[in-house]
Amino acid sequence: MKAGILGKKLGMTQIFTDEGGFVPITVIEAGPCAVLKTGEGKALLGFDRKKEKNTTKPLLTMYKKLNVEPRAFVREIAFDSLEGISAGQEVTVDIFREKDFVDVTGVSKGKGFQGGVKRWHWKGGPGGHGSMHHRRVGSVGASSFPSRVLKGQRLPGRMGNKRNTIQSLEVLKIVKDKNIMLVKGSVPGANNGYLEIRVAKKKEPAKREQAVKPKETAKQESKQEKK
Known about the structure:
- With 227 residues, this protein is mainly beta.
- It has three helices and twelve strands, in the order ββββαββββαββββα.
- Strand 10 and strand 11 (180-184) form a beta hairpin.
């Protein structure tokens, strides 16, 4: 199943179970998202309003044709079926239900330029005086052959600030009136960071409750046959 919505991370908190334990949760503002364009099983969604003066004229013209305010966060989301979804409409958080599983994509927190001990969890060198190798880089290349540093070495560099996806997070609660979704666990990024929320690839959504008529008992069936 393919479906999704855009949202914003509001923060983390916890809820308590009946047994007295607690579950860490992330509070997400999911939608409403304006549908800007549809085609080929995908819908272009826009979330969070922004000022017209900060919007380019070509985009502003498109928004005015759709009678939609300019959006700050725009992404393309795949849907299994676009039935009932067209440009100018809105997608709300009620496309998900409790006990569904979602994949949440965001940009992780940037931590700047970091050394290998923090970035790659190196053990580090001896801590005594005179070692001169406490947290520094050791040997990284061969000698005469190949006379270069091989690609893929785990070295100091920029840490974080990358697109990251956490898969199969359970939806614990949906507050439709406030467009709030409570998800079990943590999601990438800082508070107020934008997120892409899609139906989980590796876990099936929760089964919807359907009204099932009770089956007739064998006795009732036999009575009907006699009649």
